[in-house]
Amino acid sequence: MSTRPSAPKTTCAQHRCPKVLVRGRLQCVVEYGETHLGQRRIVDVFPGSVRDRHISPACLILEDGHALPLYNADGHEPRLCPEGEANRILCSTSGLYVVGVAGGRGAGGRPPTVELALARRKNVDPNHPGLHRLQFLDVSLRSIQEITCPSRCRPPA
To answer: Could you give the CA distance from residue 71 to residue 58 in angstroms, rounded to a whole number?
Structure first.
């Protein structure tokens, strides 16, 4: 019998998805995403910025002040949105609710992603949407890891 401590599990047994380190704790991406994004409406898009070689990614802003930074789903590169793309994203997502969060497995050697299910109405079951049309948005694990909670938001300097 080994006396070595076992490494922390990096996969959630319940949801069969990755876990990420958030403020020093391993979190299931589905549970953490649902807790901070679930049933909240998207109200704005911050296009991202570059200042003094620091890149701030584009962010989806939710009705309660949560901010979801957008990182490239295939990696960890911050996603910057030129004004036209930010407007396109805002037009296609504004008013939609995050009704589901699913942890994806990276296919073909790509890193795992997180899939957000979006709907025009709150409380739509993404597994049984009925007549409700869903849209999907893939984001990287880092996007979930870096969700900004309203209590942690600071006004721009």
So the answer is: 8
